[in-house]
Task: inverse folding
């Protein structure tokens, strides 16, 4: 192999007949691995596209946002240590959403925390990515059956690129999810980087709840109430008023008898 070259260079000293060939050097380039290179292109020139160069730069410098609401964040924090060393993938944790392009939702997302999560996602610059980490983030986990304040899936609030199941996922699984995200970034096309339209979203742009009018009117509720209460229940106020009138009439009769 020739030094400082792209392809393999083969030097044929002898042909099949045994005749020696002087300085017969032929470059052998695989056209499948390098489709943009041909046999005329010099070996010192690298041909690529602007889209591939942009994707390579972005996948090598993914900056995640430090966001954790539950025990899954402990596993994510262990990646910063020297044992796993996620800096080798170009990940630099940031505390500001305006400086991050990746958010890893590590932990349970509650109804009270949902507007803050949507606000953080909207403050991140484009293009941005989301990794849903843990069973509680993806489906609600063990809180999905009897909890009134847990969001059953973070994808109802923000679009998710990679789902990472587990309770909690291991640091090796987080690295695998980051590798899959890097592969997705490498295949992106510039025209496809359109802001995803969220179809089903619980919160508006201003992060306020909409007051929806009740579908049941007051008359319908009274009908349903009387159907299940047979005989009708008398109020204590009416009973007290009747007894008070009966007691107030007795002293008047005694005074008349005395007269």
Result:
């Amino acid at each position: 192999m020739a030094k400082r070259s792209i392809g393999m260079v083969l030097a044929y000293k002898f042909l099949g007949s045994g005749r020696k060939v002087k300085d017969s050097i032929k470059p052998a380039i695989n056209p499948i691995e390098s489709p943009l290179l041909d046999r005329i292109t010099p070996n010192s020139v690298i041909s690529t596209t602007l889209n591939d160069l942009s994707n390579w730069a972005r996948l090598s410098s993914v900056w995640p946002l430090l966001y954790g609401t539950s025990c899954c964040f402990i596993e994510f924090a262990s990646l910063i240590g020297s044992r796993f060393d996620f800096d080798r993938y170009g990940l630099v944790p940031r505390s500001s959403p305006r400086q991050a392009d990746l958010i890893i939702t590590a932990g349970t997302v509650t109804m009270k925390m949902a507007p803050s999560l949507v606000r953080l996602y909207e403050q991140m610059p484009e293009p941005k990515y989301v990794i849903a980490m843990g069973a509680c983030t993806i489906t609600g986990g063990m809180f999905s059956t009897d909890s009134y304040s847990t969001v059953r899936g973070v994808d109802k609030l923000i679009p998710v690129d990679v789902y990472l199941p587990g309770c909690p996922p291991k640091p090796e699984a987080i690295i695998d999810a980051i590798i899959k995200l890097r592969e997705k970034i490498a295949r992106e096309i510039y025209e496809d980087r359109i802001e995803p339209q969220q179809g089903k979203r619980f919160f508006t742009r201003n992060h306020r709840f909409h007051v929806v009018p009740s579908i049941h009117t007051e008359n319908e509720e009274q009908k349903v109430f009387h159907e299940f209460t047979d005989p009708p229940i008398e109020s204590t106020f009416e009973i007290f008023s009747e007894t008070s009138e009966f007691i107030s009439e007795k002293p008047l009769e005694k005074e008349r008898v005395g007269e």
In short: The radius of gyration is 36 Å. The mean pLDDT is 67. Residues 56-192 form a domain with the Rossmann fold fold (CATH 3.40.50.12280). Residues 236-258 form the longest helix (23 residues).
